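Protein: Discoidin, CUB and LCCL domain containing 1
Species: Hucho hucho
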Amino acid sequence: MSGKEKLNGFFVVWTILSAFGEQLDDGCGHSVLGPESGVLSSKNYPGTYPNNTWCEWKIRVPEGNSLVLRFGDLDMEARDCQSDYVKVLKGVYGGEHVYGTFCGSLKSYPREVHTDSNEVIVQFRSGRHISGRGFLFSYSSGDHRDLLTCLDKGSHFSDLKYRKYCPAGCKAVAGDISGDISQGYRHTSVLCKAAIHAGVILDELGGWVSVETHKGLSHYRATRANGIQSKDGSLSEALFTFLTNDCKNQSVLQHVSVSASSWGEAMGRQSDWVPNSSQADPGSRGCTWAADQNDSLQWLQLDLGEKKRITGIITTGSTMLDYHYYVRSFKIVHKERSRWRTYTQNNSTQYMIFEGNQDSLHQTRNTFHNPIIARYLRIIPQTWHQRIVMRVELLGCTQLRGTHPNPNPHLRATHPNPNPHLRATHPNPNPHLRATHPN
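Structure follows.
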């Protein structure tokens, strides 16, 4: 028996031998067990779940809370719940109270399971079968009503404004998004992955999202942000944006000066890539830089002239087809009083390594959770392709509005005129028994 621990929960996997003596695989799929919410799924989801497997998870939220589980999908071949099933039990191992045993499809069950405990055990068993996606569900403490799953889309909701709770762990769950924070997201995009892409929530924590629906666009451009790639999207009748109250005048911050550990030529044109070149004159938006050396001691420093609220960063590579230079990952340090501090996220003691670019042509955006309050900021490349070359833009507020740790300070509705003719695509759901939406 082997055990693995993730955040505030853990799961246990048994690998067994059948009567025929073959070694069987385990049935544990993607799982993120967060302190207040999370996601569980069968192995290979949304592909076919494996034969003859067993997996058990133990979920715990803080004492004084109850657990709510919400199915996003259930597709298991057996309908008698003997050979293939998902079972939810109360509390400790060997608990006799069963909240529910599930198999077949969601047509036969409510989508939500409400418990009276802060601790449950989830068991998954599979026998021999031909097809079936298995299962995927999310959970949260009872304080978080309006719980979403990672499969819920904007098109599943008819209200022009609504507030929902996204579980931790949706980033790695299959589901497409089209669009970006700057223009909004196509209504067919999965909500919680879009919220991570927009920088509204952290994947490892989840959280509340406030959503507003607007008239759609003729095209949605693909962008990469916070480790998620959105896709090009076609004409749609509706789109959605995420609402916050903080930093409504978010923009690309202007710097007054730049410096670097070294600089050199890129594509034979040194003047375009030296930090104090015309591309980086005071008052310009962003900065271009090619380091003369290629090692992790190199850095690029931007001076914003005064302390500002820095909420994110956009990076690009060389942008030249014949010169595939770009930074794959980097860390951020900022000057606080007279000391340089390496950026950490969510009160972690480990410094944050940000995902850079995946090619030399396209932008990548990263959100700072929490925002950085600083005048001086340095970007320190950690890995790169061929050589260190970057184009950098900082996002944030031109005026400080306090330093409270709001994780989504720079987001706002970008389309203030909602379409008054949007019609409901689904009937108003019963809060205890909800219809299953197609993928």
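Remarks: The helical segments are 191-198.
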